[in-house]
């Protein structure tokens, strides 16, 4: 089964969700997702990137249901399928240069106030899943769920570096050639940084369409 990434920028805040295709035909597809997919409303227009395909699909959310096992499933109908220009493909996944380290609450307060903090910082691969609510990035250290992090994040190739804090909400174990990764939820995100992430998401969706 192929994995898929769903992007919606219709609402007030852009939404990006990952899942696994369970069924599909010429009319549409069903995708098993995590609970973050609950934010996708019926009738929402989305862009779907399937891992095994070069192109993109434009779809509409027809159903959004939780099954007996607690797994959420989206039912999407096709509107259009676009071939990808492989020369442009790398630009569709703009990297987010990032460094992070675990901090105490007092260090987090100092960091968001603009004060420098020492310690060992880690720089993961900048190509990551992101939304205006958080990030998911590769991590090879011993991060644990619930850890408080200081983040220094750049939005866009020439964007400003932002001092943020976030909490680790989930750890994904390494699977095959995919490394261990962490999903974090922003705790302190300046309004201007949120606007920059929203604008980047909209730019990506425009490129996909």
Description:
This protein starts with a strand and ends with a helix. It is built from 2 helices and 12 strands. Residues about 85-95 have low confidence and may be disordered. The strands form 2 sheets. A 6-stranded antiparallel beta barrel has the order 1-2-3-6-5-4. It has a 6-stranded antiparallel sheet with strand order 7-10-11-12-9-8, with helices on one face. The protein has about 210 residues and is mainly beta. The protein is about 10% helix and about 45% strand. It folds into 2 domains: about 5-80, predicted glycosyltransferase like domains (Thrombin, subunit H, Beta Barrel), CATH 2.40.10; about 95-200, Thrombin, subunit H, CATH 2.40.10.
From the N-terminal CA to the C-terminal CA, the straight-line distance is 25 Å
What multimeric state do the chains show? single chain
Mean pLDDT: 82
Strand order of the largest sheet: 1-2-3-6-5-4
Helix content: 10-25%
> Approximately how much beta-strand content do the residues carry?
35-45%
Low-confidence stretches: 84-94
Look at the structure and give the CATH class of the largest domain.
Answer: Mainly Beta
CATH topology of the largest domain: Thrombin, subunit H
Q: In DSSP terms, counting alpha (H) and pi (I) runs of 4 or more, how many helices?
A: 2
C-alpha geometry: globular
Helix/strand order: EEEEEEEHEEEEEH
Computed over alpha carbons, the radius of gyration is 18 Å
Number of strands: 12
CATH homologous superfamily title of the largest domain: predicted glycosyltransferase like domains
The CATH architecture term of the largest domain is Beta Barrel
Q: What profile does the largest beta sheet have?
A: 6 strands, antiparallel, barrel
Number of domains: 2
Q: Decide which structural class fits the backbone.
A: mainly beta
